[in-house]
Design goal:
37% of the residues lie in helices and 19% in strands. It contains 22 helices and 21 strands.
Amino acid sequence: MTDDELIWRIAGGSGDGIDSTSQNFAKALMRSGLDIFTHRHYPSRIRGGHTYVEIRAAGHEVQSRGDGYNCLLALGDSFARNPKEEAVYGDEEIKPLSENLDELREGGVIVYDSGLFDEEDIEELDLEARAEENGWHLYPVDLRGLAKEHGREVMRNTAGVGVTAALLDMKLDHVEDLMNDAMSGDVLQANLDILREAYEMAQEWDFEHDLRVPEGEHDEDQVLVSGSNAIAYGAIDAGCRFIAGYPMTPWTDVFTIMSQNLPEMGGISEQVEDEIAAAALALGASHAGVKAMSGSSGGGFALMSEPLGLAEMTETPLVLIESMRAGPSTGMPTKPEQGDLEHVLYTSQGDSQRVVFAPGNVEEAYEQTRMAFHIAYEYQIPTILIYDQKLSGENVSVDESFFDRQPDPSLGSTLTEEELEEAAHEESGKFMRFQSDPDATENGVSPRSLPGQKGGRYLASGNEHWPSGHIAEDPTNRVKQMDRRTRKLESIRKELDEEHETQQTYYGPEDADYGIITWGSSQGSVKEAIDRLNDAGQSVKGLSVSDMMPFPKTEVSEFIESVDEAMVVEMNATAQFRGLLQKELGQYGPKLSSLLKYNGNPFEPAEVVEGFELNLEGNTDEPSAQVRIEPAAGD
């Protein structure tokens, strides 16, 4: 974190409006010309439990959460189950204050609701002594009382925004504009009144802190979007008009956004009884000739194993979303982790074929979703997008023009009725849907027909089959069909390498001596860490890999060969991505070490910096953060 940025954290209980308040504050900062990156932390409860949202805002590019933060608005938990310390969950009422102090930087600002936190609470926290030790600036305000004066206690959020805006020397114009967009009538007026009253009250205080909202200016209009927004918009722009699903955090965000938008475009959204039905329904829609998708998170995706295998055997295009969360089983359903990679790569029985992409930021989430639909429908293969709760929920400012793309309604390798007239048929008249002749299917794809097309009749079976679809156990046919289906992955890798710009992200000086390799949402923290390391005199570059299957062997091997050592950064306990690297490129095992984090929180840049330096020096000291270093094989 640098001195020219604001990292503002608003903390309360689930149900206290923390998410909506933070989104509006982030938009106001973005409209003032700042780059935005948000981080959301919340418990797996509908109401109550400590939650916070962190907004990082700066006049320069920000691409990850920062190291700690410098301004806290602590509202307290309105839905605390039991405020007594001896309760199982402790004193929940005060946790939005007590559990956020360790990460507050020196000289930071704290605004807390004295209408909820009484003097006894403050004394138990030893808050004033800690504030003096760390140079914190305390501003107790009876936000609850102020809100009640205006009629609704929930407006204490608005009062808190007014106070912090004044303390940060931030104008209210953009905040008021957003309120006018979202509210009307008496509710709007009451919120405007309390916002201005709190702002004017705080302006009269004498305060000594140096923290202010930074200045910035955008070259073009910005939008604030999350990874879930980007995936949903990418799917819509790719021509997806059907989605089926069952709610499960954090996949639910994509499902909700798609469900809100598809009906306006003539599309269909179906919430069904379970994830087996969801994947099967999407599979049926795709078979019928609609671009379709489904998805879930870890436990729900496990139920999709059987329809996923059916899609592979029947060669029906399908896009699936897998939004990781900490497991196994229910695990920590609202916390980020990258523990499902092996689950997604190898789910389904037999020698299966699927494509897996892992975007590392919002822009990649949009582009790789569109690529997923292109690959799925061109090669008649299930394509999976894997991401985590961090990317799902973080909001980032992006140039509006980035999303100005043409839609793609193409159904890929699908024959017209005119083309079907010239296609191969067996004597019974059935279309030879699953041709196995290598000369006719050089890239592994045997073009399909759609139900109802003249001359397109065939059988679609989960059993191995003859070219017409009839069940077959003939050994020679089995080998031909299996070889053809596996040939698709070779063709997809060739297309990705030769016809599209790489989906891998490179960072840092090309001639660097050392490398950091990562995947998924850890990309931003790794990028910032590399900047800091190079500024400190190290020689480091980075690679963020998105293509999990088919794996980009040439690109990754060239990167590893170009450095003396490479550290693999990922959020799981079993080094799953490092395992994939060693499976695909085993000869480089002695060059690869790991930096692992799996405590439910994403990497901060400082943790990556420290881990790299300790690893490079061969230091056996434990890192200060809750991360783990695993040395290279043979060390």
